[in-house]
Write a structure and sequence with these properties.
This protein folds into two domains: about 1-35 and about 90-130 and about 200-295, TPP-binding domain (Rossmann fold), CATH 3.40.50; about 35-85 and about 150-185, no CATH class. Helix content is about 40%, strand content about 15%. It has helices at about 5-15, 25-30, 40-55, 60-65, 70-85, 90-100, 115-120, 150-160, 210-225, 250-255, 290-295, and strands spanning about 20-25, 105-110, 125-130, 130-140, 145-150, 165, 170, 195-200, 230-235, 260-265, 280-285. The longest helix has 17 residues, at about 70-85. Bound molecules: zinc ion. Zinc ion (ZN) binds near residues 138, 190, 192, 193 and 195.
Length: about 300
């Protein structure tokens, strides 16, 4: 076992020497960045839904089968607003950007909270495989387009009694009890067929792969083809075992098959390095925020 300081030094060296970095990011990265889905943040924005329906984290509330679309969108507009539009200021994504911004990099992520772009990462170097909280699509879907939802989401949270501070933070003015529904006219509907919209998230086979998604997918494939013989570092951050086929297993395979590849896995509690790439990789069981601060 290497000491943590040695590991950080090795990561620094590998990144410095690399021709290219491919970042693979999962939910653990956003958790490290402060986007927690239970505890204080849940209590602050969802205690009314939590006591009405008996859930205590945002994910569970997202799966709840609400009786009306007005209530469904009351829940989801708060959820989208605080996880997509409101900032959490612990600097993790910005530190990650500082680490790679002068390198040839690409990001593959299952995260849908848009934090890479907010931190400065170039859009053409990102592939959001699972969608984006900031996009609506037809719920059916009748056509393969997505729609920016910022204005609708803001209107929906304001209609529940919330206010938005100058820095973008959502808060309840004193004495206001939030409504748990939005007016029917704010329920988003498809501009082509009039059916209810849904979020552009890969939850089932209705997920719309729009032109932007297809372009990003093609960019990723091209990046990998162009760099297969180069000195490439696969930097896996907070990828768990919900959808390991998208990032983790691919990275293991690239690391094993490409002569000049090196694999780094940073994950609090779940870091793992397969035996066949033992000499071409590193697993760090630690908080991503702390490791990034150590690297800068
Ligand atoms: Zn439609």
């Amino acid at each position: 076992m290497r000491e943590q300081a040695d590991k950080i030094e090795l990561i620094r060296q590998k990144i410095e020497d690399a021709d290219a970095i491919v970042i693979g990011a999962g939910a653990g990265l956003s958790t490290a960045a402060g986007f927690t889905y239970s505890g204080d943040r849940f209590e602050k924005y969802f205690s009314d839904f939590g006591s009405a329906y008996g859930f205590s984290d945002m994910y569970s509330g997202g799966f709840y089968d609400y009786a009306t679309l007005e209530e469904y969108w009351a829940y989801w507009s708060r959820y989208i607003y605080i996880n997509r539009y409101q900032d959490v200021e612990n600097g993790t994504y910005r530190n990650l950007y500082a680490l790679v911004k002068d390198k040839d990099y690409f990001v593959l992520t299952t995260n849908v909270d848009h934090q890479f772009q907010k931190a400065g990462f170039a859009k053409e170097r990102l592939f959001y495989t699972q969608g984006d909280y900031g996009l609506f699509q037809c719920g059916r879907p009748c056509h393969a387009k997505t729609y920016d939802n910022e204005k609708t989401v803001r209107d929906m949270v304001l209609a529940q009694g919330y206010a938005i501070a100058e820095d973008g933070a959502l808060y309840l003015p004193e004495g206001v009890m939030p409504k748990m529904s939005v007016p029917a006219e704010l329920v988003p509907r498809c501009p082509k067929c009039g059916r209810p919209m849904s979020m552009n998230l890969r939850a089932d086979n209705t997920f719309v792969e729009d032109a932007g998604w297809k372009a990003a997918s093609a960019s990723y494939v091209r990046f990998m083809e162009e760099h297969m013989r180069k000195k490439i570092v696969f930097l896996e951050l907070g990828v768990g075992y919900n959808t390991p086929g998208i990032i983790k297993y691919n990275f293991w395979q690239y690391a094993a098959n490409w002569q000049n590849a090196f694999y780094i896995c940073i994950n609090q509690g779940q870091a793992y390095l397969p035996e066949d790439i033992e000499d071409k990789g590193l697993a760090v069981n630690a908080d991503i925020m702390q490791i990034l601060e150590g690297l800068l």
